[in-house]
Specification:
The structure holds two protein chains of two kinds.
Chain A: E1 17-21, E2 33-39, E3 42-49, H1 57-61, H2 70-74, H3 81-96, H4 102-130, H5 135-155, H6 175-199, H7 203-209, H8 217-222, H9 228-232, H10 239-242, H11 263-289, H12 308-313, H13 315-326, E4 335-342, E5 345-352, E6 361-365, H14 367-372, H15 375-379, H16 384-394, H17 398-402
Antiparallel strand pairs in A: 1-2, 2-3, 4-5, 5-6
Chain B: H1 6-16, E1 22-25, E2 31-35, H2 40-49, E3 57-65, E4 73-81, E5 86-94, E6 100-102, H3 111-122, E7 125-127
Parallel strand pairs in B: 2-5, 6-7
Antiparallel strand pairs in B: 1-2, 3-4, 4-5
Classes of the chains: A mainly alpha, B alpha/beta.
Chain lengths: ~400, ~170
C-alpha cells in the first residue's frame, strides 16, 4: 500500500485533526472519500480518493457488440440514464452514418429533457435537504416518480433504463405514455414554482449558499468544468446550443447563466434549466403532431433488430437478426467523438472502431469525473458544513465518477 | 457552424509548426493531427494562447493501445475552442515500453485527473505531473488494465469457455 492518504497521517507535529469524510458518510450521497485536515471546523487541506465503484466499463465495452454497450452507459449517471443511452446511440449512428427521422429525434429530445429534469430534481432537492429543508425534496420527488412512470411506459424500466436502440426506439410511445407526459407537464410547473418560492428568497438557504464555493469563470474553464456548474460561473457553454444533436436546433430555448459560480447560482441555474426543459418538451409535443405517428426508428435493417414475429416468419428479418446478434455487419474503420449535454455536463463518447463487432477502444468523457477534481482544492479554507453543501451542488454521481 | 474552418486552422498551425505536424484526417469533421512528444506542449500552448484560435477548453485526454505498432500507445487530446466553436484532436504516439510524455497540467489544471486516469490504465508517465498516482484502480495494482494484453476475465476459468459469442 503506497502513500494511501488514510495511513500516512501519523505525524506527531500535526496539530490538525484528520477526518475521513466518506466513503460511506451519509452526507456525501454516494461513495466518495475525502481525507480532510481540519483546523477546528475549517478545512486546511483535503485529498479525494475515488474509484470505489469502478467497474471497468471501458474494458468491458471492448468485448461487447455496440448494442450491448447501452446497458453499461445506464450505469454511468444513473440519475439520468436516458441521456447516456441516447448519447451512445447517437455516437454509433454518427459512426455508421445513420440519419434518424425527425420524429425519432423529437421523441429522444422529450426523453432526454425528462431525464435532465429528474436529475436536477434530485440535485436541487438534496441541496435543500443538506441545508435543512426536507419539504422541497419531498414535493419534487413525487414528480421524479411521475417521470419514471413515463420511462416505464416507454421502455419498461425505471432507473437503469436501457431506453431506445441504435436507430431509434425499440417500440413506439403508447397513448398512456403521452397522457402521463401531458399530466406531468400540467402538474410539475406549479410544484417547481412552489419549490422556488420555498428556497429562492429563504433567509436560511441564501445565507448558507450565497458566496459559498464561488468559482470564477477562469478557474471553471481551467478545470474543464462543464454543464450547470460552468454556466453558473458565467460561461454560456451548452452542447445543445453549440453543436446541436438530435434536432435541438429546431427548438427555442435559453441557456441560463449564473453570475459568480457559487452554490446559490448553481441552484438557480438548475431550476431555470428545468423550466427550459419543460419548454422544450412542450415544443416537441407540438412538433410531433406534424410527424407521422407510426415512425419510431430509422430504416436501417442491418443495425436495427427486426420484430420477433418477423424473425420467425420472414427470411430477410431472420438473416438480419442473426447478423446483428453475431456482429457480422462491417462497420467503418475510423474514430468518432460525440458529445451530448448530460445533466451535469458534457458527456462525450470517444469511439475508435476497427471495423469489428465491438469498439476497438471506447472512452467516456464523464463530466462528474472531471468536475469533481476541483473539489479538494476548492475546499481549502472552507467550513466543513459548507464543503458538504458544495459537494451536493456539484451533483457528482458516483457511477459516472468511477465508470 | 464554427467561425474557423479546418483549413484555416490547419494553415495557422502549419505556419507555426512547419513539418512538425501531420494530418491524420478529418473523421466526421473533426480535424485530427499527429505530432511528437517534443512538440505536443508547444502546440497545445500555441492553440490555447493564440488570440484568434483560443482553444481554451481541454475536453479530454485519453490513450489507445495498438500492440502491433512500434509506437504502441497513442495519447489522444481533444481540445475545444469555445469562442470559435471548433474542436481539434491531437495524437501523439509513444513507445509502449518507455512511455514518457510531458504533462499538460502546466496549461490546464483539469489535465491532472485525466492524466492520472491515463497513467492508471495505460502506464503512460506524464513528466512533470504534480501527483501521478493511480486513481480508479487500487494503489498496489501492478498491471495497466486497458492495455490489450490484459485479459477481461481470468483466463484460467473453465466455466466460461464460450468462443462462439466472442468471449
Amino acid at each position: 500500500m503506497q502513500n494511501h492518504p488514510v495511513y500516512t497521517d501519523n505525524d506527531p507535529q500535526n496539530e490538525n485533526s484528520t477526518l475521513n469524510l466518506g466513503p460511506t458518510h451519509p452526507a456525501t450521497h454516494g461513495v466518495f472519500q475525502n481525507v480532510l485536515q481540519l483546523d477546528g471546523e475549517r478545512i486546511v487541506s483535503g485529498v479525494s480518493t475515488i474509484g470505489y465503484i469502478h467497474r471497468a466499463f471501458e474494458k468491458i465495452a471492448e468485448h461487447r457488440p455496440f448494442y450491448q454497450i447501452t446497458p453499461l452507459t445506464d450505469r454511468l449517471n444513473y440519475c439520468s440514464s436516458p441521456i447516456n443511452n441516447m448519447g451512445w446511440h447517437m455516437t454509433v449512428e454518427k459512426l455508421l452514418g445513420i440519419t434518424t427521422p425527425k420524429r425519432v429525434d423529437y421523441l429522444r429530445v422529450i426523453v432526454m429533457e425528462l431525464a435532465r429534469i429528474s436529475d436536477h430534481i434530485i440535485c436541487n432537492g438534496v441541496l435543500g435537504v443538506d441545508t435543512g429543508a426536507f419539504t422541497g425534496f419531498l414535493y419534487m420527488m413525487e414528480h421524479r416518480e411521475a417521470i419514471y412512470e413515463i420511462y416505464e411506459e416507454v421502455c419498461g424500466s425505471r432507473l437503469t433504463t436501457n431506453i431506445g436502440r441504435i436507430g431509434g426506439f425499440e417500440r413506439n410511445f403508447n397513448a398512456i405514455a403521452f397522457n402521463k407526459l401531458r399530466k406531468f407537464l400540467k402538474d410539475f410547473p406549479p410544484v417547481l414554482k412552489e419549490f422556488e418560492s420555498l428556497f429562492n428568497r429563504n433567509r436560511i438557504f441564501v445565507d448558507r449558499t450565497r458566496g459559498v464555493a464561488a468559482v470564477t469563470a477562469e478557474d471553471a474553464l481551467n478545470f474543464s468544468w462543464s454543464g450547470p456548474l460552468l454556466r453558473a460561473a458565467g460561461v454560456d457553454y451548452d452542447v445543445r446550443a453549440m453543436e446541436p444533436y438530435s434536432s435541438y436546433e429546431d427548438f427555442d430555448f435559453e441557456v441560463p447563466v449564473g453570475d459568480n459560480g457559487d452554490v446559490y447560482s448553481r441552484f438557480l441555474v438548475r431550476n431555470e434549466e428545468m423550466k427550459q426543459s419543460l419548454r422544450i418538451i412542450e415544443q416537441a409535443l407540438v412538433k410531433l403532431e406534424k410527424e407521422p405517428t407510426d415512425i419510431f426508428h430509422a430504416d436501417v435493417p442491418e443495425f436495427y433488430l427486426p420484430p420477433k414475429e418477423e424473425v420467425y416468419n420472414n427470411m430477410e428479418a431472420l438473416i438480419y437478426h442473426f447478423k446483428i446478434v453475431m456482429g457480422e455487419i462491417p462497420t467503418p474503420n475510423t474514430e468518432v467523438y460525440h458529445a451530448v449535454e448530460g445533466a451535469n455536463g458534457e458527456l462525450g463518447f470517444y469511439l475508435v472502431n476497427d471495423g469489428g463487432r465491438s469498439p476497438y477502444r471506447l472512452h467516456f468523457r464523464r463530466p462528474s469525473f472531471i468536475n469533481y477534481q476541483m473539489y479538494a482544492p476548492m475546499s481549502k479554507g472552507m467550513l466543513l458544513s459548507d464543503a458538504i453543501i458544495n459537494m451536493s451542488s456539484l451533483n457528482v454521481i458516483a457511477g459516472e465518477l468511477d465508470a | 457552424m464554427g467561425k474557423i474552418t479546418n483549413e484555416e486552422l490547419l494553415k495557422s498551425i502549419n505556419t507555426k509548426f512547419e513539418g512538425q505536424v501531420t494530418v491524420v484526417g478529418e473523421p466526421y469533421g473533426l480535424l485530427t493531427l499527429e505530432t511528437s512528444t517534443d512538440k505536443i506542449i508547444d502546440i497545445l500552448s500555441y492553440l490555447k494562447t493564440d488570440p484568434t484560435l483560443q482553444f481554451i477548453y481541454l475536453t479530454d485526454i485519453t490513450a489507445v493501445h495498438y500492440p502491433e505498432q512500434e509506437k504502441s500507445i497513442g495519447i489522444i487530446y481533444h481540445i475545444h475552442s469555445l469562442v470559435n466553436n471548433v474542436r481539434i484532436r491531437i495524437k501523439v504516439f509513444i513507445d509502449g515500453n518507455n512511455c514518457h510524455i510531458p504533462t499538460a497540467t502546466t496549461l490546464w489544471e483539469g489535465a491532472n485527473w485525466m492524466e492520472r486516469e491515463t497513467y492508471d490504465f495505460f502506464g503512460v508517465l506524464f513528466d512533470g505531473h504534480p501527483d501521478l498516482r493511480r486513481i480508479l484502480n487500487v494503489d498496489d495494482m501492478t498491471a495497466f488494465p486497458m492495455r490489450k494484453e490484459f485479459p477481461l476475465e481470468d483466463p484460467n476459468r473453465v466455466d466460461k469457455k464460450d468462443y462462439f459469442f466472442g468471449r
